[in-house]
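Recap for those who missed Tuesday's class. We walked through two folding examples back to back. For each one, the amino acid string is listed first and its predicted structure tokens come directly after. Nothing is annotated here on purpose, so try labeling regions yourself before you check the end of the notes.
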Amino acid sequence: TDSTPNYTFSSTEAGTITYGGSCSSSTTSASSGNNTITFTSLSDGTYSDCTIIVKDSAGNSSNTLAITSFEVLPSYVAVGSSGKILTSSDGTSWTSRTSDTTSNLTGITYGNNKFLAIASSTIDSNGGTVLTSSNGTSWTSSSVTCSSCPSDNSSIYLNDVSYGNSTYVAVGNTGRIVTSSDGTTWDNKSS
């Protein structure tokens, strides 16, 4: 979620830094040894074309250093009625994202390298649905199972979800709690 990430590289010569691709920095000189630069503010998204070249005082250019692909995730994700998902890097400007549901979304969390959103619809012994995203911008609807959930028409209406200690925890009506380690297979818990 850091839109100005640092990057450290090593150079055998001091010189002038030239940036290529989608990344840049106000740091334009390198010293011999390790150099840490801070990228100029980046938008949410994947960066796979960033490069660095160091040119020494004799005009010799280094090999092109291709920076390993990385992703800037949104700092804020909000969900709401009719499948609404919004993302923001600063909490002020928001971008609407496409979800493949019209269900009212009532909770969002990040854990286990993915965002997970829950709908206010039910989860029961027949299963249910969650939305997941690795980057906050592209969302996929996934079917879930809950073999230990009630089968007597006392469905669990979910109100919120959180992640901690390697576990997703969703809460719902009448004290219902369901947990999952992967976001797909859920277990009913006693409150």
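Example two. Treat it independently of the first, because the proteins are unrelated.
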Amino acid sequence: CDDDKVILKFLELQLIKYATITGNQFQVNTYTSGTDLLANHKANPFSFIMMDIMMPGENGIEIGRRLREFDTNVPVVYLTSSPDYALDAYSVKAVYYLMKPIKPADLTYALDQLMSFFTTPKRPCVCIPVAEGNTKVFIDTIIFVEHIQHVLYFHLQNGSIIATANSSLTLAKALWMLSEKGDFSQPHRAYIINWAY
């Protein structure tokens, strides 16, 4: 995501070149607007995001904060011509901060690190439908699920609660989805518990 179409094309070509050399496969989506990026990520979550910081309207840090409201896991690489936003970038859990003009060697290094993230053993996760779209949650962070008036509340290890507003996800479907990847059961008609807790 970058408001400069020349940089977008450069990144797209570099990603395709990297994929060809390393044997990876990428589907590259380009955006000139952070709002469009967020809308598409909610519908079909991306594996990673590369985003400019200095953009008209909301800057990349503001977009990153909105992103973290519904997806705390997707890796974000910031691209910028100014080092002034480095601390802000890490406040939204950026994994890299690449300076423009982007050197192919630096981009390759960042991509190598991202690919190693994806090839390490994966923690099982589930996609939970929420009002803003879908959010990925690691199975081992779910303590229990509570059902109140047609809404499921996923209680997580960090104290946060994710609610499935306006969703067709039932407690029975959630139990099936969670039991495939972890040790969950339903001891009561309104609760699913994770036996790990």
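Answers for example two:
Residues 52 and 79 are 5 Å apart (CA to CA).
The beta strands are 49-52, 76-80, 96-99, 125-130, 133-138, 142-148, 151-156, 161-163, 184-188, 191-194.
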